[in-house]
TrEMBL record:
It comes from Rhizophagus irregularis. The keyword Electron transport does not apply. Residues 78-97 are annotated as: Disordered. Residues 22-60 form the BED-type domain. InterPro entries: Znf_BED. It holds the Pfam family zf-BED. One of its GO terms (molecular function) is DNA binding. The lineage of its organism: Eukaryota, Fungi, Fungi incertae sedis, Mucoromycota, Glomeromycotina. Residues 78-90 have a biased composition (Polar residues). It comes from the Eukaryota. Keywords: Metal-binding, Zinc, Zinc-finger. This is BED-type domain-containing protein.
Length: 97
């Protein structure tokens, strides 16, 4: 989980997930752990990080373009409020209002 391609470029997900010590294909969100939430085990089998990226985007509002805003001076993730954004379209959200 240290690079997102063959060039060795560090993927932004590597800052926010820790690898399970007993199964290196499983990762846990450090933000969810620090916020005392029950972290879900995410698979990153074969180096695939798409589900890790989706978790950061959907639950924490973290994307590749803004991830540094969520790191402290030691490049460790800061605990951020879980996003309350809905994944529904604006039209569907209006139906519930």
């Amino acid at each position: 989980m240290t690079s997102d391609d063959d060039t060795g470029t560090i993927c932004h997900t590597s800052f926010f997930f820790r690898t399970d010590e007993s199964n290196f294909e499983i990762a846990y969100c450090k933000i969810c752990e620090r916020a005392n939430q029950n972290p879900y085990p995410y698979s990153h089998k074969g180096g695939n990080t798409s589900n890790l990226i989706a978790h950061l985007r959907d639950k924490h509002g973290i994307i590749k373009e803004n991830y540094t805003e969520y790191l402290d001076v030691n490049n460790e993730p800061q605990v951020v409020q879980t996003s309350t954004r809905s994944t529904c379209s604006p039209e569907r959200q209006e139906l519930f209002s």
